Amino acid sequence: MSEKPPYTSHFPVLEAPNVVPEKFKDTWEQGVNEWGGFMKQAVEGVAKMVASGLGLDENTFTDAGRYGSHLLAPTATDLVKYGKLNTIYAGFHTDLNFLTIHGQSRYPGLHIWARNSGKKIQVKIPPGCLLVQAGKQIEWLTGGLIKAGYHEVVCTQATMDTIARREIEFPQRPLIRISSTFFWHLTPDFNLCPIPALGDEAEKRFGKQEDYGEMLVGDQVRRELGLIALMAPS
Ligand SMILES: [Fe+2]
């Protein structure tokens, strides 16, 4: 869901082509582009509100992410195969991008950890609402004032109950958990370093913060992907 920059990027590898599943090739692109467009609009609205709330120009983050490698990434979990209690679908982690947005999944299972309590929270997204989570790029840019949120997706009792209910209510539907998550990124060529006023505020409120240093977003992404071994070493 990205926009091509008017300059030559240092990170062409991040401009990977879209994946279109063969079986859905006639309707896929239109469907995901429409949904992705709405999600992008919503998350950019949040990015503007966050900037404004932090006392910055409202376009600070959206300008920094104008040519970001934004990804709409639908993932599917086969609940016939993996519908056992406590099966981990996504282990405890934070996202490497700036903001992540998603709608309600048909099957519950997402847990988040809030900074102010340290307790695991079961996410229940009310109908018609979207959930936005902070990723590492916003943590870095705000010098730790906003921390990337830890989360995990597991098969819980609530997931099991939903499976049992849907087997009766929609016996013709496949038991597949779909999560269509939109990952909003900063521009790969943007230089990532804490905004001084925000870093100072983070220290004042939460004590000494880690030394974030300075790095191009594209290098940060490459480093993160290397750490989680999704990208072959070059
Ligand atoms: Fe995640």
UniProtKB/TrEMBL annotation:
Residue ranges of every copy of the Isopenicillin N synthase-like Fe(2+) 2OG dioxygenase domain listed in the record: 90-185
One Pfam assignment: 2OG-FeII_Oxy
GO molecular function, one term: oxidoreductase activity
Keywords per UniProt: Iron, Metal-binding, Oxidoreductase
InterPro entries according to UniProt: IPNS-like_FE2OG_OXY (IPR044861), IPNS-like_sf (IPR027443)
Transmembrane segment boundaries: none
UniProt record similarity statement: Belongs to the iron/ascorbate-dependent oxidoreductase family.
Entry protein name: Isopenicillin N synthase-like Fe(2+) 2OG dioxygenase domain-containing protein
